[in-house]
Amino acid sequence: MAAAVAASQISRATVVGKTSSTISKSINAQNAIRRTNNSILEPGQTVVIPRWWTGRYDAVCDPARFLVDGQGKITKADLHANSDLGQELQHKYNDVGLVHVHNTGLTNMADQRTLARILMGEETEYEGGANPRGRAADLGNVYDIGAPLEAALAYHHEVTYKSHSVESLGFLCKHAVQRDQVGWSFVSDSVQAHDYIMTTPLGQKLKEKGLCFVRRMTDATSERDIGALDHDNPSLTVYNHWQQSWMTNDPEEAEAAAHKQGLLVEWVPQVGGGHMMQTRYYKSAFEYVPGLDRNIMATSIADDGEWFDSWPGIKDVPQELRPLEMYFGDDTPFTLEEKQAWTDAYDMFGIPLPWQAGDVAVLCNLRYAHGRPGIHLLPGEQRELGVMLGSFFERQETKEGKW
Ligand SMILES: [Fe+2]
Predict the structure, then answer these.
(1) How far apart are CA 53 and CA 347, in angstroms?
(2) Distance between Cα 66 and ligand 1 center (Å)
């Protein structure tokens, strides 16, 4: 990995430019990616450490290109494409694929949604993904995040591992915490992260081998229900029973249905009786983005067991039993160092979204990954975001000659 580390320094210097601030930025990057004995891992490190960003708000993209100040006085008259606000939103979104409108003065999520729709157009019904999501009442297709607040959510694109995705994502902030960085979301510039990772052995390995996505579904007949983290709160159930997923109690029927979707199936004995259904699916780590006319990285360790590293109830479940796992496309495992390097690639290009109530952020789902550290509230604090999913598209994976 020594070559990767050297490449990281070169790439970083190229990105930030050779100005007087390069040195301090370089130090930040080095702090973000500490290394010992030519390893990017900390001494004794056993899990992936996310760092989210380098600590400089303007290091990845000039904030003037994506920030919009509503000056506390956005009205309904501003909430259309031809208003000055609408024009500014579209100009900035077309430029960098990201807009964060702060200081909106909006107190109604329905108005925030209208604002986001200037950029997002048609919304998509939520059909799948890693977490179950409840619909916000009276808000059309605005969803809850669908994960426990205390769980860190690794950088990811809202791309299902099989064939579907959405063009854009909208976040509407209803309640925010004004204490340090508590409750901030982060986005990572995937174009820069891609360009960096392709200078490393990991990027080349991902390109050459592709990925294998493993999914595990529990057996409803098992006496030990490892899927139920909290019986009073079904939204915290992170496993699906295979009987539920395939709507049958017959394993042969379930297997046939999975084969139809291109999944390979294995049955793994489950503690408490019965068998877990384990499926494998093979796919590129990259996706062609028409607006950029190039392939970029569209996957992260969010599809691996690490997704649950800080989830209450499941963080103590061994990796090999977690609902998600990922291998290279030749079924070889990732090393911890490779997982850390992949995480670092996103963290190097992270941009924070420090929330205030009323804020709206819209991002291109392929140009940016999104994520957040775990959130631990103090009594009296609230942090609540609604999520909107933009137009649906079919993944086309990569195109020859577009690297
Ligand atoms: Fe997400």
Answers:
(1) 5
(2) 20
How close is the Cα of 170 to the center of ligand 1, in Å? Answer: 10
Residue 158 Cα, ligand 1 centroid: separation in angstroms?
5
CA of 128 to the centre of ligand 1 (A): 11
- The C-alpha torsion from 321 through 326 and 332 to 337, rounded to 10°, is -100
Spacing, Cα 251 to ligand 1 middle (Å): 31
Kind of pairing, strands 153-156 and 368-372? Answer: antiparallel
pTM of the model: 0.85
Domain borders along the chain are 47-201+338-394
Please give the class, per CATH, of domain 47-201+338-394. Answer: alpha beta
pLDDT of residue 220: 87
In sign, the C-alpha dihedral spanning 382, 383, 389, 394 is negative
**What pLDDT, on a 0 to 100 scale, did the predictor assign at position 392?**
87
Q: Within 10 Å of residue 27's Cβ, how many Cβ atoms?
A: 12
| Cα 370 to middle of ligand 1, angstroms | 6
Is 38 within 8 Å of 2 (Cβ atoms)?
yes
User: CB-based contacts of 91: which residues, under 8 Å, 6+ apart?
Assistant: none
Residue 141's pLDDT is: 63
Distance 196 CA to ligand 1 centre (A): 23
Low-confidence ranges of the chain (pLDDT < 50): 1-32, 34-36, 128-132, 135, 231, 234-236
CA 250 – ligand 1 centroid, Å: 33
Closest CA to 117 of 186, 70, 172: 172
How far is ligand 1, taken at its centre, from the CA of residue 257, in Å? Answer: 27
Q: What is the pLDDT of residue 140?
A: 60
